[in-house]
Design goal:
Elements (H helix, E strand, L loop, with lengths): L9 H12 L7 E4 L9 H16 L3 E6 L9 H13 L6 E4 L4 H13 L3 E4 L3 H7 L17 H13 L8 E4 L14 E5 L13 E3 L1 H12 L3 E5 L6 H10 L7 E5 L3 E2 L6 H9 L14 H7 L3 H11 L7 E2 L1 H13 L3 E3 L1 E2 L2 E6 L7 E7 L10 E7 L1 E5 L19 E4 L4 E9 L5 E8 L17 E2 L1 E3 L4 E8 L26 E9 L11 E4 L3 E5 L10 E7 L3 H5 L1
Parallel strand pairs: 1-2, 2-3, 8-9, 10-11, 12-25, 14-20, 18-21, 23-27
Antiparallel strand pairs: 4-5, 5-6, 6-7, 13-24, 14-17, 15-16, 17-22, 18-19, 19-20, 23-24, 25-26, 26-27
Helix pairs in contact: 2-11, 7-8, 11-12
This protein binds adenosine-5'-triphosphate (ATP) and magnesium ion.
Length: 558
């Protein structure tokens, strides 16, 4: 399904009703609000497709807003990566905004709340505040500072801003209800002191808003209509609504929650992905095993595949893990008709065609498939006396149903000739190192004039003209479907798959691909989908990343 015929979901229905009734008195306005503390991952893609998709469909607006309220973790390099990844997914934002641009406005709202008796400065320790919150079954205890006068609070707030106090000396809290059934509403923290340099604003501020204070009000400032977030924020909806109301916004945005994407065999949390990077479990945020958009791009996954995947999984209220097979299906489905099929021998064994003239090379016409995109016509594939075939395509003592090469058996070389294995050459260890075969000169193109049946067709590369290359066989990053299954008691890194990358340095690919730009993608016939690595390929020595195998071999062996 394409972006112009979006699948329906409960959020889309609500938004359609907003448009119908003119509920907000302004166009549909959404935002994608990442914190610039890491690279975007496949979970974010779900949120991007949803927010941008609605704005596009309903002729509305969508902002890319950096929710940058934590000076300890944020960085410009993440802002740049996020911009690049959203654009790569194929979306254009109306405005680029920063929560940090609203700090002054948030501060003014804080003063208003204080003046209205709706917020107070609390000077308890962090532990004191936590203890005073009570529990789900028992009400909290009011802070001894809860009854400070408005002028006392205003004075303290101004001095907090002026930098008179160290970190942790005071916080600004909303004055709501210490017995509220929703614990978040028991006088939540709004501002805290942090003498830290912010990546954009430097030392301009030493008080920073907490998520709840910044998020809903930033939405309101931007005129967002529906604020879409994941289910963990369900309980935050009350404070969201309280704040936008107390701050006096007309037709304020409302929050709707949906289930976050959880994908089997990986983790989708920037904090956890950052650990993988920092601890060297992967080569970086763009390691092709990472579920980041940068990693998926380098792996050879296209934006179309990711958008089709987001569309397939849909948007629901109920959390559910998505099987890796669903994602891989979207990837294959997208690449199938998009990329050229070419030949690469990953694990080669040499064959010598003993009756083929030495020094002779024939240029065989090999039609491209798919025929329509992106290349039409054909390329020439050199055929010579010495060739490589896949080691797995030969068996010395084959079972009955093995239709590939074996002593005395005949097989078809794709686009080429029928060949018959006459003898094997072994080394001192008894391993087969070379096969001596004969070819039938009457079978060029693969058909025998006498009509004899040859079942097997295998791929091959000319030993003389094939290009030596490196092939990186990527597999699942974790060896269990839910790496976080042990919760906080365990360490998700203990479930990393030790075989998530197998590097094959001695592969050979047909020479037709050697001039292609890095990033070019192929189906290596009978092997899988691959992409020329944009970072490590060198001229004349390509490196290929396996994007995905040809079919889901995992589901079968499970
Ligand atoms: P992370 O734990 O990876 O940092 P986050 O929610 O803290 O996730 P943000 O950068 O704050 O990350 O999120 C930006 C937006 O993306 C939010 O609206 C968030 O709800 C959404 N989002 C993040 N992870 C997912 C996910 N797995 N599925 C769907 N949406 C997500
Ligand atoms: Mg976050």
């Amino acid at each position: 399904m394409s972006a112009d015929t979006p699948r329906n979901n409960f959020i889309r229905e609500l938004v359609a009703a907003d448009v119908e009734t003119g509920r907000f008195g302004r166009p549909v306005t959404t935002r994608f609000p990442p914190e610039p503390n890491g690279f975007l991952h496949i979970g974010h893609a779900k949120s991007i497709c949803l927010n941008f998709g609605l704005a596009v469909e309903f002729g509305g607006r969508v902002n890319l807003r950096f929710d940058d309220t934590n000076p300890f973790t944020e960085d410009m390099k993440y802002v740049e990566a996020i911009r690049k990844d959203v654009a790569w997914l194929g979306y254009t934002w109306n405005e680029e905004r920063y929560a940090s641009d609203y700090f002054e406005q948030l501060y003014e709202i804080a003063e208003t709340l204080v003046s209205n008796g709706k917020a107070y400065v609390d000077s308890q320790s962090e532990e004191g505040i936590r203890a005073g919150r009570g529990t789900v079954t028992s009400p909290g205890t009011p802070s001894p500072n809860r009854n400070r006068t408005a002028s006392e609070n205003l004075d303290l707030l101004r001095r907090m801003r002026a930098g008179e106090f160290p970190d942790g000396a005071h916080v600004l809290r909303a004055r709501i209800d210490m017995a509220h059934p929703n614990m978040i509403m028991r006088d939540p923290l709004l501002l805290r002191i942090r003498h830290a340099s912010h990546y954009r604003l430097g030392d301009k501020w030493c008080i920073y808003p907490l998520y709840d204070f910044a998020h809903g009000l930033s939405d309101a400032i931007e005129g967002i209509t529906r604020s879409l977030c994941t289910l963990e924020f369900k309980d935050n909806r009350d404070i969201y609504e309280w704040l936008v109301r107390e701050a006096g916004f007309e037709n304020p945005p409302t929050q709707i929650e949906f289930a976050r994407l959880e994908l089997d065999y990986t983790v989708v949390s920037k904090r956890k992905l950052l650990r993988l990077v920092n601890e060297g479990h992967v080569t970086g945020w763009d390691d092709p095993r990472m579920p980041t958009l940068a990693g998926l791009r380098r792996r050879g996954v296209t934006p179309d595949a990711i958008r089709a995947f987001a569309d397939t999984i849909g948007v629901a209220r109920k959390p559910a893990r998505v099987e890796l097979a669903t994602f891989e299906h979207a990837i294959r489905d997208d690449l199938n008709m998009r990329v050229r099929r070419v030949m690469c021998v990953v694990n080669p064994i040499r064959i010598v065609l003993t009756n083929y003239p030495e020094g002779q090379v024939e240029e065989l016409e090999a039609p491209y498939y798919p025929h329509d995109v992106p290349l039409t016509g054909s390329r020439s594939v050199p055929f010579s006396r010495e060739l490589y075939i896949e080691r797995d395509d030969f068996m010395e003592e084959p079972p009955k149903k093995f239709f590939r090469l074996a002593p005395g058996r005949e097989v078809r070389l794709r686009y080429g000739y029928l060949i018959t294995c006459q003898s094997v050459v072994k080394n001192d260890a008894g391993e087969v190192v070379e096969l001596h075969c004969t070819y039938d000169p009457a079978t060029r193109g693969g058909d025998a004039p006498d009509g004899r049946k040859v079942q097997g067709t295998i791929h091959w590369v000319s030993a003389a003209r094939g290009v030596h290359c490196e092939v990186r066989l990527y597999d699942k990053l974790f060896s269990v479907p839910d790496p976080e299954m042990d919760g906080d008691d365990g360490d998700f890194t203990s479930h990393l798959n030790p075989d998530s990358l197998k590097v094959v340095s001695g592969a050979y690919v047909e020479e037709s691909v050697v001039k292609d730009a890095p990033g070019s993608a192929y189906q290596f016939e009978r092997t899988g989908y691959f992409v020329n690595d944009v970072i490590d390929s060198a001229p004349g020595h390509p490196v290929f990343n396996r994007t995905v195998t040809l079919r889901d071999s995992w589901a079968k062996t499970k």
